[in-house]
Fold each of these.
Amino acid sequence: MEFDPAAGSLKCPYCGTVQKISHPVNQGVEELGFEEYAHDPGASKLGSLSAQALEVGCTGCGSVIAFEPGTFAGVCPFCGAKIVTQPHSADPLIAPNGVLPFSVTRAQAAASVSQWLSSRWFAPSELKRMARPEGIHGVYVPFWTYDARTYTQFRGHRGDYYYETEMVTALVNGRQVTERRQVRKTRWSPAAGQVGNEFDDVLIPATRSINSKRLHDLDPWDLEVVCPYEPAYLSGFQAQRYQVPLTDGLGEAKNIMASTIQYTVRQAIGGDEQRVDQIRTEYEDVTFKHLLLPVWIGAYRLQGKVFQVIVNARTGEVQGERPYSAAKIALALLAALVVIAIIALLVDR
C-alpha cells in the first residue's frame, strides 16, 4: 500500500482499499535534548526511516536518498542525474520524530507547476516536461527545529533627543537670512542589563541540495499539525538524509535568534536611539526535533547547470529557477522587427 495525499491514508493502488494510519492517543512530537545527541549520540539514540528502507547516493549532487523497496525510479530528484550506484541498507541516523504528510497530490502539483510555467514566456521547452506528473518526484526533505531559552547580558548607550534654539543662517529667495530654529541633539547615557527570550521551533533546512532561498520562500509550513513520525508516510515516496549536522543547524538557528535578541536588547535600552556595544548570550534548555516536510520537486540539466522547480506539498506554493531560451528570445525579436517593418511600410505607402 502507498500513502495517498488525497485520502490522508494508506491506499492500495490496485483495488483502492484504504487503511488509516493510527497514532497513539494524545501523543505529540517529542522534543529531544540537544546535548544528548550533539556530541556522541551512541547506537541507542540512532535509528532508521524504517526497517525496510534502502539508501542510494547520487554522484552528481551528493544527496543520499532513502526509499522503500520498489519505489525508486533511478533518477535523482534534486539534480536529474541517473543513479548508477547500487542501493544498500540505510545507515543509522538521528531518526525523524515528526512528519508533515503530503496533502497535495501529484496531479495538483503538476497543475501548479503548469500555471507557474505559463507566466515564463521565454523558458526553454525542456522546462515544460515538469508540468507533467511524471516530471516531478515526491520527496520528504529533512529539517531541524530548535527550542531554547536565552539570557543575554548587554552594555551600550541610550540616546535621548532634546532640542536647543540656535541662530541658523539660511538662503531664502536668494538672500541670506539668519533665524532662530529648534535644532535636535542627542544626549547619550550608559546602559547595561539583562534580557531573556524563549524560542520555539526555529526551523532550519537540513538539506544542501535545494537552493536555500527557494526553500525559505516555500514558507509557511503548518508545523502545528506535525504528526509523530510513522514509516507508513514514506510508502510511495522518497526521503532525503540530512546533510546539515545537528550542531551546524544550531549555529544557523542562533543566527536567526540573534536578530530577535538584538531587538529585545534595544527595547531594554530604550530612548530614541541605541548603541549596543557588547552582548553575551547564554543558551539553556536547548531541544530539537528532526522533521520531514513534503515537497514535489523536478530537476533537469541544461548547458551544464541544474535547474529545480519545487512545490510545497501542503499549500501548493511553487518556487523555481528558470533559464531563458536564447532561441525563443531571438524569434521574439525577429517577430517584433517584422511587425515594425510592416508598420513602417504601411505608413510610407
Note: The first helix runs from residue 34 to 38.
Amino acid sequence: MVLFKAPLILFYANHCPVFILYWFKMMARSVTFTLFFLAVFLQAGAYGLTFMLPKLFSVFHADEKTVGMMLFITTLSTLFFVYYAGHLADKIGRVQTLSIGCLSIAVALLLYGSANSISVEIVLASILLGAGWGLTYSLIPIALTTIVEDHERVRYFSLYSVFLMAGFGLSPVMASFLEGQGFVIAESFYIIAIFCFLSAFIFFILSGPVKNLAVNPKANPKSSLTLGAIKSILNTKALLPIVMVWLGASVFAGMNNFQSVFAEERGLNYSDFFLYYTITVVICRVLLAKFKGGNNPYAIIATLQYIMCGSVILFIVSGASQELYALVAVLFGIGYGASYPVLAAMAANDAEPDLLPQTLQVFAFTYFIGIFGFPLIAGWFIVEISITSLLILVAALAAIEATLAMRRAVTQKKSLVVKPSV
C-alpha cells in the first residue's frame, strides 16, 4: 500500500507548487482585469457629461454654437496629446500615463462645474478634458493589447467597450435623476470628478500587475508616434478602419452631443434615450465578448452600421412618439454600439505588428476628430440651419461608413475563395 502511494505523493510534491503558482497567476490576472475595467468605467462618465454641456452652458445663456466651440478647443487639445501620448508613455510608462490622464479629466470637470460664465476657466477645462481623453483613450487599447493574446482581442475589446459604454451612457441618466431631485447640473460634474480621481488611483496601482501579465514581455515596441510612422500606417490595410472610426464618431457625436436639445424640441426626456441606448449597447457587447471575429468581420460591421443609418433616418421622421424614440435608441445601440469594438479589433488586426501601438493611436486620433470636432459643425447646423438638416447629414455619414465596410467585406470574401487545383 505504501509502495502504491509513493508515486502519488512524489507527483503532488513535484507538481503542487506549479499548480499553486498557476492558480495565483490566474487570480492575479482576474483581479487585474477587474480593476482595469473598473477604472475604465469610473472615468468614462466624464464623456457622458459632455452631452450635458448644452444644459450647463444654458445656465449662463450660452448657445449650442458656444458648446461646439468649446468642444473644438477640446479637439485641438485631444489631438495634441494623442500625438504625444506615446512619447510620454515611453518615458514614464503607459499605465502611469493613464493615471495622469484621469487626473486631468477630474480637474476639468471640477472647473466646468464651478464656472458661471464663458471665461478662461471654461477654456482651461476644455483643454484639460482634451488632454485627459487624448492620453487615456489612445493608451488604454495599447495597454490592453499587451496583456491579451491576438485571438482574444475582439473579446476583450468588447468587454472594454462594455465598461466604457456603461460609464458614459449612465452619467447623463444620473444627471437627469439628480436634476429631478432638485440638484443643479453642476453637481453631476463634481460627482464624476470624484470617480475620475479614484480611477487615477486604480491605474496608478496597476502599473506593476499589468507589466507582470504582459503576453510577450520582451516584445515591447515603442509607443512614440511620428510623422513617418503615420505615413507608413496610412499605406496599410488599417487605413480603412481609421477612416471608418472617424465617420462613426461623427455620427455618434451628431446623435448624442445635442440629444438634450433634440429631446426638448420634441417634448421628450433625453434620459430615456441614453438609458435605452446604454442597456442595448451593454447587452450587445457582452454577447460580443464570446465572438472571435468570424471569417468576414467587415460584413458584420457593415450590417450593424446600416442598422445605425436606419436608426438616424427613423429619428428624423419619428416626431414626438415616445415608442419610436425608444426604438431609435435601441437600433442606434445595436448599430453603433455593437460595431465599434469589432472595428477597433480590426484596426489592431490590420496593423503591421511593429506599428501596432502607433496604429491604435492614429485610430484614436481620428476618433477624437469626429467625437469632439463634429459638434462644432453640428452646433452651427442647429443654430444657423435646422436640426433636421443636421440629422440628414448624420444619416449620410452613417451610410458612407456602412458602404465602406461592405466594400471591404466583398473584397475579403473574394480573397477567401480557394481556386480549384488543375
Note: Residues 75 and 372 are 5 Å apart (CA to CA).
Amino acid sequence: MRGIMLLSLAFIFYGLMPTAMSAESTPPNIVWIFVDDMSANFSCYGEKTIKTPAVDKLAAEGTRYTRAFVTAPVCSACRSALITGCYQTTIGAHHHRSGRGEMKINLPQEVVPLPKLMQARGYYTAIGGPPSKNANPAGKGGKQLGKTDYNFEWDKKIYDGNDYAGRKPGQPFFMQYMLQGGKLRHNKTLVARAAKDLGSNTKSDDVTLPPYYPRDKVLLDDWAEYLDAARYTDYEVAQIVERLKSEGLLDSTVIIFMTDHGISHARGKQFLYDEGIHVPLILRGPGIKAGETNTNFAQQIDLAPTTLAIAGAQIPSWMQGRNLLYTSLAPRDAVYSARDRCDETMEHLRSVRTERYKYIRNYLNERPHLQPNAYKDGKEIVKRLRELHSQGKLNELQEKLLFAPQRPPEELYDLEKDPQELNNLAADPAHAETLALMRKKLAEWESSTNDQGRKSESPAQYESDMAVYLGEGEGGAKKQQLRANIEQNKHWAKEGK
C-alpha cells in the first residue's frame, strides 16, 4: 500500500480541512447520475447537432466542469476507482473485469468503499438503474442493485437497496442512478424510443465525425444513434429531477452528473485520447455555485471525497481524490490516466495531461492500436473500419492512427494547436524538452502511487479471469474468436510484445 501511504502525507491535513457541511448541520441528500459510454456530447458542452435541455439546466443551476477526466477509460476500472476515491492502479483493480474467477482481488485493509462510509454518517445508500416513467416511489425499492462492476471483493450490505424510497422518515440518502448512456445505441429499440419519447431521431447526414473516422454510412448511422442515446440520457435526467421536485426533495439534494468514460469507438473507450477520458461533470444543489464554469482539472476519484465533504464527514487520509468544493487547495497541474488489460486483450498504457500537452506511454508498442478483442470486434463500426482498411479505402491519417502495425513507444500532443491529437510530436527535436518533462511527470506519478501495472499480471490471474469469459454465454464463432485471441495474447507475451 506504499502509494497510498506516500500520498497520505499530502492529503492528511487536507482531509481534516473544513468541509462543505459541518457535522452539526442537517446533511443534504446526494444523488449521483453516472452514465455509461458517453463523452461530453451535451449542448452545454458545445454539442451543436442535438439539444439536451435537462443537462443544460443542471449546468445553469450549478457548476459545470470543463476539464473533467477519468483515471481509466473502461467501466470496471473506472468504477473501482470512483467508489474508493483511489487510483485503480494503486488498489490493484486496474485490469478490466478482473477478480471475477477463482483468484479474487481484495482492497488494501485501510480502503473502505464510499457507501459504507456514508452509512456510518447516517445515510441510506442505494444504487439503481435508469428511472422508470411508471415507477412507484412509494414501492420502497428492491434489492436488485444497479451497475457496480467493481474489480474487488465487496459486501453488498454497503447498499441498503436500489432506491432511496426505502429510507427511514427524515433519513438523508445517497442515491446512485446508473444510466446506460452510450450503450443504448446498441439497443434495437432506441430508434423507436427516441422517436416516441423525444419526437424525432437524429439524422445521419447531420453528424460531424472526427477526421480519423471515415464518413461512411455505418459510422454515421452509429454516431447518430449515439447522439440519440445522449438525448435519451437527458430525458432520463429530467425524470430524476422531476421526481425529486415532486417529492419536495430537490432543494435539499445535491446532484452530481458524470459519465464513466468517453464514447465506445476506435479511439474512445479503452484509449487515453481525450475521446476516451474527457467527460462531463456537473454539480447542482445547496452549497454549489449556480451558473459557474470551473476550468480546474477534476477526476472521477474526486467524487468520493467531495461526497463525504457534502455529507459533513471527514475525508480519510488514504483517499487520493480531492474535495472539489475545497477551493483553497491549489489546482492540479495535471491529470493521469491508465489503461490495462481489457477483457482478453493485454495492454499497458499510461498518460499525463496538462493544460496544454498530452503524453502517452505505449509500453506494449509492438502491438497494433486495434488489437484483436472479441468485444470491440463485435461492433459494427469496428467491423466496418476493418473492411475499409482491407479494401484500401481509408485515407493516410486514418490508416496511420487506426491500423499501423505498431505504435510509437511515446506520443506527445500539443492540445492547444491539435485538440484531436492527430500529430505526434514525440520525435520532434523542437519538443524534446517538453517530452522529457512529461516523461518525468508520468514516471514520478507511477512511482508515488505505486502503480500496480508496472509488474505484469500473473499467468494464473489471467487464466482465472479468462475461465470466466470462456464460461459465459453460448459457444459458436464468438467463443472460438475469444479462444484464439487468448492464445494470441499469450504468444505475444512470451515474445515480449
Note: Residues 150 and 213 are 32 Å apart (CA to CA).
